Amino acid sequence: MDLAFDRRHIWHPYTSTLTPLTCYPVSSAQGVMLQLENGEQLIDGMSSWWSAIHGYNHPHLNAAAHSQIDKMSHVMFGGITHDPAINLCKKLLSFAPDNLQHVFLADSGSVAVEVSLKMALQYWHAKGEVRPKFLTLRDGYHGDTFAAMSVTDPDNSMHSLYKGFLPQHIFAASPKTGFWQEWDESDLDNFRTQLSENHCEIAAVILEPIVQGAGGMRIYHPKFLKGVRELCDEFGVLLILDEIATGFGRTGKMFACEHADIKPDILCVGKALTSGYMTLSATLASSEVADTVCGGEAGCFMHGPTFMANPLACAVATASMELLEQNEWQQQTKQIEQLFSELLPKLKQHELVADVRWLGAIGVVETTTPVNMEAIQALFVEQGVWIRPFGKLIYMMPPFISEPQHIQKLVDAVECALNSEECFSS
Ligand SMILES: Cc1ncc(COP(=O)(O)O)c(C=O)c1O
What we know:
The protein has helices at about 5-10, 45-50, 60-70, 85-95, 110-125, 145-150, 190-200, 220-235, 285-295, 310-325, 330-345, 375-380, 405-420, and strands spanning about 25-30, 35, 40-45, 100-105, 135, 170, 200-205, 210, 220, 240, 265-270, 280-285, 355-360, 360-365, 385, 395. Helices cover about 35% and strands about 15% of the residues. It has two domains: about 5-60 and about 325-425, Aspartate Aminotransferase, domain 1 (Alpha-Beta Complex), CATH 3.90.1150; about 70-325, Type I PLP-dependent aspartate aminotransferase-like (Major domain) (Aspartate Aminotransferase, domain 2), CATH 3.40.640. The site of pyridoxal-5'-phosphate has 14 residues, from helix 5. Its cofactor is pyridoxal 5'-phosphate. It catalyses: (8S)-8-amino-7-oxononanoate + S-adenosyl-L-methionine = S-adenosyl-4-methylsulfanyl-2-oxobutanoate + (7R,8S)-7,8-diammoniononanoate.
């Protein structure tokens, strides 16, 4: 692989052209293993950022891609429809909360969030109300496009640079009570205050249910989410749930909102939708939202990406839904959760560990000192695993098909990193 070319000319996520960090050349992937060009195998602890839930090179997903590409890989969606989209949307609606009846297919998680915000704005516009604000939580993350950044934590994110360019929204304190802790009613106080003081100008609340991902890997109490739904109803504000990271079983439920037994007005999904094969996302809306939007001045929802409902991606996503329908994910995520609950507390004793947390197929070790990326990445590769931390967060969200020995190896590698001074020196 021409790594010198890569270093010189190709931007990777959040990297510098001046001081590019080492990139490891992957030549193939199979099941839970990533194969490096030199033949070394790494156990994947990231599911390629939450997406490859069924593992890599899955025969059922491969077959769906092969079969679809021989028919057509893409066709425009304006004025045309096709089976891959119809089949996928049928399955999506059968999995999603039953009040959601309309699906808008888009290309990435960030775009699904943009779409959800536009839907909420058009909804109030159609009702003749000016509601230009969104209420969200601190420590949240919703993507890298501008509107998505504007509802991402303004301080702890990588986005504080763009502050002057972004619309100003309202941020409530993030929940403090962890998923497994005793619920503290006062957790909702700030959210309630913000909503009651500003509800007349708030189009929607947008948040990540139960797990705040890239903004801090925080796993919070379902009663917070339940309270949010009740308050949205009380103050007549729409609720958008961003399940782009949590959707499709990752937290041990098909959708994280099921932990709180609530339904959103608008739901965003992406990432694991195609099990990481291709980029595809969806924004689902209730009939009340969709019909109000379309009854407004524009007479339609004003969005239509070129690659909307890409048939190849839809066919693979349908195949991924078929795998989920076999219901093995429930046992698989339960087993991973059990292993994290046994293995992670042992790391808590370490002086560099501030906290450990887990839920479903997610395990997090928060450290007291930021990691040295170059050093920790090299150590993980040496240990035969692929884990990519950021800041003080070493987190794992392995493919659901991971076996106990894979999880053990991931946690052992984290322990090894904690014991290596290099991994925490600046
Ligand atoms: C909760 C959440 N929302 C939105 C996004 C953005 O998705 P994408 O990177 O596909 O644009 C992410 C990505 O990490 C996410 O975790």
